[in-house]
Amino acid sequence: MRPFQTSIIEISRSAFEHNLNFLKSYLKDGVRICSVVKGNAYGHGIELFVPLAEECGINHFSVFSADEALRVHQSRVGDSSIMIMGMIENDQLEWAIENEIEFYVFEPIRLQQALLVAQRVGKKAKVHIEVETGMNRTGFALKQLPAVLQLLRTNSAHLCFQGVCTHFAGAESVTNYYRIKVQQHNFDKALKLVSASGLSPVLTHTACSAAALRYPKAQMDMVRLGIVQYGFFPTREVLIEYLTKKNTKVNPLQRLLTWKTWIMDVKVVKAGEFVGYGTSYLANSDKVIATIPVGYSHGFSRSLSNQGRVLIHGQRISVIGMVTMNMITVDVTDVENVSIGDEVVLIGKQGDLEISVSSFSEYSDQINYELLTRLPADLPRTVVD
Ligand SMILES: *Cc1c(COP(=O)(O)O)cnc(C)c1O
C-alpha cells in the first residue's frame, strides 16, 4: 500500500555494509568508527538508520544537540555510546549524565555545571574536552587546559575524562592544507599537556570523513564519520584525490538513499501553450506532460525549475516550468506508455541511470550535505536490501 505521503525514501542496507567494509579496510587497525547522525542522520532518518547501523556493527553515534541525542537514545537497540558534539544546555545535563550520554565541553561554566550535576545525580559525567586548535569556533584554548585538567584530576570521582578532541576547519580542500597542519601541531601540544598531567582520556579523536581519508595521522583512536558512511565523498576534490592515489576509476562508496514518487497525472499540451505558472515554459510542439506530486515544500528546490531531471521508465526526463510548492511537471513526450502511478526517481537509480545527489545539488546549487539534511523528516523511510 502507498503511504499517505506523496514520496518515499529507501535506504540500502547492502550499500551501507559495502561502505563500512571499505572504510574498515582503509582505516588503520584498531581505529574505532563513530557514526555521525546529526541532521537527522544526514536526511536518512535517525530512527531508521541507528538500528540499521547497530546491526552492521556500529556502537558509537554522535550528534550535534541534546534533542538528537534523545532520538538516538530512543531508537538504539543495543547499548551504543551516544556523544553530543555541540550544544547541550545546563538544564539537560541531568538527563545526559543519568543516561550516560557523552558530551563535549568547551568552556569553563559548562564544565563546572557538569561537575555539580554529576555530584547531585551520583553518576559520572562523561566529558570530551574540545580543544581550540584553529577553527576558532568552540574549544578550550591551550592556556586554559592546565586548569581544566586540574579540575578533572581532583574530581575524578564525578568526571570521567572520556575524550580529548578537536575539529578541522576544512580538511576536504587542499587549499586548507597549511591551516590543518597548524591545527594538528596545536593538538599535539594539547596532548602533551594531557600526558604531562598524568591523566589519560579514554579516546583521542580529531577526524571527520575528509580528515580520516586525507590525513591518516588524524585517525587516532576514533574517527567521526558522517558523509562517507552514507556513500558520498565530502567534496569532488577528495574523490579525485582518492582515485588518483589509488590509480582507479572506481568510486569505492555506494549511496544508501533513493528518493522516489509516482506520476499523479498525464496530459497532452498543444504547441504554443504555456505549462504551469506564468510564461517560463512554452511548448514549442505538442507535448505529453506528467505531473509529479513533489515540490519545494518537499525539498525539491525551486532553482530546479526548467533545470531538474528525474527518471521515469529508466529514461532521464526534464523538469519543465516552475517547481511549485507541491508539484513539478516533466516532459514525457518521448517515453512510451507513460501512465498515472508509474514510478519516478528523484534521487537514486532506475534501470541503468542514476540521478546523483551531487548532480541534483549542482543544478540546485546546494552541496550534498545541505540537500540531504533538508529532505523532510516526515517522509516515510524504509530499509531495502
Ligand atoms: C559533522 C561533524 C563530523 C562529520 O563530518 P563529515 O564531513 O560528514 O564526516 C565530525 N566531527 C564534527 C565535530 C562534526 O560536527
From TrEMBL:
PROSITE patterns: ALANINE_RACEMASE
Keywords noted in UniProt: Isomerase, Pyridoxal phosphate
EC numbers for this chain: 5.1.1.1
GO cellular component, one term: cytosol
Catalytic activity: L-alanine = D-alanine
Active site per database record: 38 (proton acceptor), 277 (proton acceptor)
Role this protein plays: Catalyzes the interconversion of L-alanine and D-alanine. May also act on other amino acids.
This protein's name: Alanine racemase
